[in-house]
Write a structure and sequence with these properties.
It is built from five helices and 15 strands. With 262 residues, it is an alpha+beta fold.
């Protein structure tokens, strides 16, 4: 069961960077400072991200709003319809019109969600927080390239939401851009394809192969070892490489399926 409600949480000032993280290294920059209580253990992080994408997609579906998964979240979907187990956050995109609607009607909504992991059923709350600078579609000084976030209030882990729009319709018609140097042809995005991500309906960019290859390189679509994980073709999932050692001049990798089970 999921319930939406609005909150009187004060909105931060619009000067300077809107979203604030507790640090800038690869770990701390993936948390919202307001809700950060410490670094989440890997297994708990994966469970948090899994619940987060399910709740996010459910919320948008309930409100009749268009969104699609992007960047690393899209890459994880390409491999097995799941998030990448080494990912720290999630990424989604919306149209500029949807972004305006979120800011005007749903900003500061708190969404109550019950986790779907068997034996857990953890109660979670997510804050939809729209950046006041989201309607400025230019990069500026780069501090506000993220237009909105969907944040787990219990730990500060978040989903980055970015809008894309046709910024230069006179000189670059049909080219859609966010504020962080990502550009797409309109035909790369639309019509959106319908698929499943982490067990719930999700929209996917039309030319997902081309988008992923352009952003991450062709090797991202076939490379089977990355970030201390290896791809298990039989199980159709990424396994964590626990140890590496040399026996008789041969490198041996010992791995196990990731600890988060269905």
């Amino acid at each position: 069961m999921a319930v939406s409600e609005t909150t009187s949480r004060p909105v931060k000032g619009t000067l300077g960077k809107y979203f604030d993280e507790p640090g800038m290294d690869d770990t701390l920059r993936h948390y919202d400072s307001r809700f950060f209580k410490g670094v989440v253990e890997p297994a708990d992080r994966v469970e948090s991200l899994t619940d987060m994408i399910r709740a996010y997609l459910q919320f948008f579906h309930e409100n009749g709003l268009e969104t699609w998964i992007a960047h690393g979240t899209l890459l994880g979907w390409w491999w097995n319809g799941k998030i990448l187990p080494w990912d720290w956050d999630l990424d989604t995109q919306v149209s500029s019109n949807t972004l305006v609607y979120l800011g005007e009607y749903l900003n500061q909504t708190v969404y109550n969600y019950t986790g779907s992991k068997p034996g857990s059923r953890r109660k979670r709350q997510y804050l939809l927080d729209v950046n006041p600078a989201s309607q400025d579609r230019h990069r500026g000084d780069g501090q506000n390239v993220i237009d909105a976030r969907w944040t787990d209030i219990s730990n500060g882990i978040y989903t980055d939401i970015t809008g894309i729009s046709e910024l230069n319709y006179d000189t670059e018609p049909g080219v859609l851009s966010d504020k962080n140097f990502h550009q797409y042809r309109e035909a790369d995005i639309y019509p959106l394809r319908q698929s499943i991500c982490e067990g719930v309906p999700a929209s996917i960019p039309f030319n997902y192969i081309g988008i992923l290859a352009a952003e991450y390189g062709n090797a991202s679509l076939w490379r089977i070892t990355y970030e201390n994980h290896s791809w298990n073709h039989e199980l159709q999932k990424w396994g964590y490489i626990m140890a590496q050692f040399v026996a008789g001049g041969i490198l041996i990798m010992v791995d196990k399926p990731h600890c988060l089970e269905e």
